[in-house]
Design brief:
Structural class: alpha+beta
Distance between the termini: 51 Å
Shape: elongated
Radius of gyration: 35 Å
Strand content: 25-35%
Helix content: 25-40%
Largest sheet: 10 strands, mixed
Number of helices: 23
């Protein structure tokens, strides 16, 4: 900043004169395009001057008027809000965006205003605030426009602002901000969507497809003529010629009409009524939107086959975008427990292992290289004795197949008998660490390695099995390496973490086997490789071919972030070398093994290329053979050197349950959650996807998952057959609030969102929430719970259940830091019974 009296002398020189006329360009402002290519509208000085003069005369704006500028300056209505009072001797109040979104602060800011303009969504909040606490006593004009204005809102404005005249404003950018106005009558019924009569020097026509005027009551396209018609579009001669057509109704030479694409009709009283769009373009909360743009973005989502975006009016008459999507066939990303360390094997698990074609093929290749004519030991053969059978197929002289579990041993022995291999395979029941063989084995083959190579106790077991091997015996696999990298969790698991129904069955089985629930090790099936953010390091390396391996260790690695994104945790996966040249990487190739996931940050943290994770990996064996694993370290941000520490421990089975934020969300209420259907998980994923490419006002408020889009007999989308979002979501899934906080928060939601009821699994955004309503929601939460909740919390925890859980956590943290006396005072004063 420089003081004015310190500026160089040249700064005081008069600005050069620039000749200007009515035909000179005043500004270029861009509007949305249906193909995603914005259109720059060329507006002339004469058009802007006429707009200001016409509105000054129509509304009697004069010296002493005060008008706040509430719209974004990138939105052309801002020129009306800012320039109208300034050119009339009045004052404009520039209001910060944060205060516009905070209705209580906004009412305080504009208490002395005599004129105010707002889009319908914001006006509805101002009306509600004025009903509760009248503050706008000086207001004499209230303008609402930029979107379809519901009749009930006009009636509410008339009631809540009795000292002000209410006006509906209408106009496209190509008509220089405004073209018509409709004064709301002081009494009587308000119906339809009136947009009134033209402003001064503006002409309005309702025409049929051939350009002929329609009689009163007959719908047609609305065309604008007169002083407000813009020059055209920047560099879009073809589009300009299409939308700006010659005026056949007696205008001046060269006069043109702008084809708005809006559908309207003349009422009997000589006023216009807005009926919607002829094309698909819509207006929501004052923003002109092409649904085709949104549909193009949604179709880029990997899980979407078809989609359609429309505008719907909810019960409050507040238009909102709704997206209807048809999922694409895909391999679902699924959360699973790590099963290998526990005795819960059943026919399904054995079937998956037996029919893992890729894994079996790699094992067979290694056995063909080393097993012909040799004695083979198969450690942990399983019910199908699959590796023992592969060893026979590879030419082994004899195979000793050891199995610990009685049920699996009996099944394996029966399978060998059925195949007539009893003379080639001897099935032995027992612990491979203690059994005896009739002769030393020359090849040892096993499948007891897990996604973390030693996770099933492989290191301890195979170290002790060496006593059964001949000198120089070959180990298959020869090496088992666990790789590690930083990842972003797939959206469907991040929003509502849950197990697939089958996986949930095994979680319950593991809990029964161990005797209590605990934060068991997690795996992710079908993890998308594109969600890996960093370089890969080595978490664990077991070289079985070199001799006994270290089952307990501490390793240090540094991972470098290569892709910007949200880092949630670490992914660990197995890379095996079964024989020289025979490798298997379970992240690159689909097998019965699933990568392991360590949650580190909840919620995730944003990382950028160059950020580094200094990582310490460790394994300890507190008892038995299966290790506990852990990762600790620091995330170092490249841009400022900021450090974020982290630590995570994955116990084999320790009485630690819901100990971290991720596990608390996973095992909510202490239950084992089964993953919801796509219609419940897909909307949250799509909303995040849309926000990465679209401004907030273009992100649909509701996402409805359908099996197919409804079509007309000629194969076109039947928009009338699209179900209401609330109906499509399924009322049968409604779950009533269960805790005191959920009950109170549900009451706030029903008031803010104007809903009859709200369930714990409902999303704030699916029910019509948007940026303006967020600020009201936060204000109500602060007033009720005496807690400040951030906007980010609403986006990251959009369901009633998640938001209530965060409020409960904050309350309990506050209480934990109080004295007994302070906590007693809080209990007496809190508005939430039971909290």
């Amino acid at each position: 900043l420089v003081r004015v009296d310190q500026l160089p002398d040249t700064a005081a020189e008069a600005a050069p004169e620039v000749p200007a006329s009515d035909a000179s360009l005043a500004y270029v402002i861009y509007t949305s395009g249906s193909t995603g290519r914005p259109k720059g509208v060329l507006v002339q000085h004469g058009s802007l001057a006429n707009l200001l003069a016409a509105t000054r005369e129509a509304f009697g704006v004069c010296e002493g008027d005060v008008m706040p500028a509430l719209a974004s300056y990138a939105f052309d209505i801002w020129l009306f809000e800012a320039l109208l009072p300034l050119t009339s001797g009045g004052a404009v109040r520039l209001v910060e965006r944060e205060r516009v979104l905070d209705v209580a602060a906004l009412v305080e800011e504009i208490a002395d205003a005599t004129l105010v303009h707002a889009v319908p969504a914001l006006m509805r909040q101002l009306v509600q605030a004025e009903r509760e606490t009248p503050r706008l006593g000086r207001l004499r004009r209230a303008f609402v426009g930029g979107d379809r204005v519901a009749a009930d809102l006009l009636a509410e404005m008339r009631e809540a602002l009795p000292g002000a005249e209410s006006h509906v404003l209408y106009g496209p950018t190509e008509g220089t901000i405004l073209a018509s106005t409709h004064p709301v009558p002081a009494d009587g019924v308000v119906y339809g969507h009136p947009i009134g009569r033209p402003l001064g020097n503006v002409r309005l026509y309702v025409c049929d497809g051939l350009g002929s005027p329609q009689p009163a009551g007959v719908p047609g396209e609305l065309l604008i003529g007169g002083a407000g018609v813009a020059r055209g579009y920047v560099g879009r001669a073809g589009l300009t010629a299409e939308r700006f057509v010659p005026d056949p109704f007696g205008g001046e030479p060269g006069a043109r009409l702008y084809r708005t694409g809006d559908r309207a009709r003349w009422r009997a009283d000589g006023t216009l009524e807005f009926l919607g769009r002829l094309d698909a373009q819509v207006k929501v909360r004052g923003f002109r939107i092409e649904p085709g743009e949104i549909e193009a973005v949604l179709r880029r989502h990997e899980r979407i086959a078809e989609c359609a975006v429309v505008v719907r009016d909810d019960e409050a008459g507040d238009p909102r975008l709704a997206a209807y999507v048809v999922p694409a066939p895909r391999k679902d990303v699924e959360l699973w427990p790590s099963i290998g360390e526990y005795f819960v094997y059943d026919d399904l698990i054995y079937h998956g292992l037996t029919h893992d074609t890729l894994r079996n093929e790699r094992y067979l290749r290694a056995l063909r290289r080393h097993a012909p004519g040799k004695v083979v030991l198969d450690v942990g053969t399983g019910a199908d004795a699959i590796l023992a059978r592969l060893a026979v197929e590879a030419g082994a002289r004899h195979v000793y197949a050891v199995e610990l579990l009685e049920r699996s041993y009996l099944a394996a022995r029966e399978r060998v008998r059925e195949l007539g291999l009893e003379d080639r395979i001897t099935v032995i029941r027992g612990d491979a660490r203690t059994v005896e063989l009739p002769e030393p084995a020359e090849v040892c083959v096993s499948e007891i390695v897990e996604s973390i190579a030693g996770g099933e106790g492989a290191a301890v077991i195979l170290n002790q099995v060496r006593r059964l091997l001949a000198p120089g015996a070959v180990m298959i696999p020869g090496r088992a390496c666990t790789r590690v990298a930083a990842v972003t969790l797939p959206d469907e698991l991040r929003h509502e973490p849950a197990f697939s129904p089958t996986a949930a069955h095994y979680v319950k089985g593991i809990f029964e086997e161990v005797g209590y629930p605990f934060d068991l090790r997690l795996c992710i099936r079908n993890f998308p490789a594109e969600h890996v953010l960093s370089t890969a390091g080595t978490y664990e390396e077991l070289d079985f071919g070199a001799g006994p391996v270290d089952a307990e260790y501490v390793r240090r690695e540094e991972l470098v972030v290569e892709r910007a994104g949200r880092m949630d945790g670490l992914l660990l996966w197995l890379r095996m070398e079964l024989a020289e040249g025979e490798e298997l990487d379970i992240l690159e190739e689909e097998t019965a093994w699933f990568p392991v996931y360590f949650p580190l940050f909840e919620p995730g943290v944003e990382v950028a290329p160059g950020d580094r994770l200094r990582l310490e990996c460790w394994a300890q064996i507190p008892e038995g053979v299966a290790p506990d694993y852990g990762a600790r370290g620091v995330l170092v941000r490249e841009r400022d050197g900021e450090e974020m520490r982290f630590e995570f421990v994955s116990h084999h089975h320790r009485r630690v349950f819901r100990a971290s934020p991720f596990y608390r969300r996973l095992f909510r209420d202490g239950e084992v959650p089964s993953v919801a259907e796509q219609r419940e998980t897909l909307p949250a994923s799509l909303r995040d996807h849309a926000r990465r490419s679209l401004p907030e006002y273009m992100v649909p408020a509701a996402f409805v998952v359908l099996e197919a889009l409804p079509l007309t007999p000629n194969g076109k989308l039947d928009r009338k057959a699209l179900p209401a979002p609330e109906h499509a979501a399924g009322a049968d899934r409604y779950v009533a609030p269960r805790t005191p906080v959920e009950e109170v928060l549900a009451g706030i939601w029903t008031e803010v969102l104007r809903r009859d009821r709200v369930g714990v699994h409902d999303s704030f955004f699916d029910l019509g929430g948007h940026s303006l309503l967020i600020m009201r929601l936060l204000a109500e939460i602060e007033a009720t719970f005496d807690l400040e909740i951030s906007i980010r919390t609403v986006f990251s925890m959009p369901t009633l259940e998640a938001m209530a859980g965060e409020i409960e956590r904050r309350i309990y943290e506050d209480v934990a830091g109080m004295s007994e006396f302070e906590a007693g005072l809080l209990a007496e004063s809190t508005p939430v019974a039971g909290v």
